[in-house]
UniProtKB/TrEMBL annotation:
Pfam family, one: GntR
Protein name: GntR family transcriptional regulator
Lineage summary: Bacteria, Bacillati, Actinomycetota, Actinomycetes, Streptosporangiales
Organism of derivation: Nonomuraea purpurea
Keyword Transmembrane helix attributed: no
Signal peptide: none
Residues covered by the HTH gntR-type domain: 8-75
SUPFAM superfamilies: GntR ligand-binding domain-like, Winged helix' DNA-binding domain
UniProt cross-references to PANTHER family, sorted A to Z: GNTR FAMILY REGULATORY PROTEIN, TRANSCRIPTIONAL REGULATOR, GNTR FAMILY
Kinase keyword on record: no
């Protein structure tokens, strides 16, 4: 049951609420989000809904076409395969640049992920996962790498929605990322690069295809 939002920072609060529902999978791909229905459900004005939806469209979590309500786009298996095809070389560059280093931001994100309560929404897990990988990319110190990686962020988040059924035991996800960070920090380079490639292939391919 949805509840009316407080009038303070209503646009941001509404965007946060809808984002969490999209990333948790509650709002499924293809679902339309009519402004009037959302306004009624959350007790806010339509201009507020319009601004909140615009934020999510900008993030890539929603899509809007002419004469159609905003909706959650479908990320197909083909889309995910292509996403990994592009991400692998970027994360390989990251691994090569960070050999022998511990990245505080990534370690902190992993710690937060592990500390989430069992009842925490999947959107919180997605947030920490994205923060971990983003911290690794930022630690390289290449603005262009960050921009390229950032362009893939929305599809990555939407893809992670599908992994919630795979990682019912969050400890598995935490352990996989612990192993990834250890491989980068401890090296050697070949091991770290192989760990990054395996992490992407394992998380998004085969039995973990999302």
């Amino acid at each position: 049951m949805t509840l009316p939002l407080r009038p303070v920072s209503t646009v941001g609060a509404l965007a946060d609420a809808l984002r969490a529902r999209v990333l948790s999978g509650e709002i499924e791909p293809g679902t339309a989000l009519p402004e009037q229905e959302i306004a009624a459900a959350y007790g806010v004005a339509r201009p507020t809904v319009r601004e909140a939806l615009a934020l999510l469209v900008h993030e890539g979590l929603l899509r809007r076409e002419r004469n159609r309500s905003a909706y959650v786009p479908e990320v197909t298996l083909s889309d995910l395969a292509d996403l990994m095809y592009v991400r692998r070389p970027l994360e390989d560059l990251m691994a090569r640049a960070l050999i022998g280093q511990r990245v505080p931001g990534a370690e902190a994100a992993l710690h937060r992920m592990a500390a989430l309560p069992a009842e925490a929404p999947w959107s919180d897990v997605v947030g920490e996962h994205m923060a971990l990988h983003q911290a690794l990319v930022e630690a390289v110190g290449s603005p262009r790498l960050e921009r390229l990686y950032g362009a893939l962020a929305a599809e990555t988040r939407l893809g992670l929605v599908r992994l919630r059924a795979v990682y019912k035991d969050r400890e598995v996800l935490v352990r996989e990322h612990r192993e990834l960070l250890d491989a980068i920090a401890e090296g050697p380079e070949e091991v770290a690069r192989a760990a990054v490639a395996a992490h992407l292939s394992h998380s998004w391919g085969g039995d973990h295809q999302s």
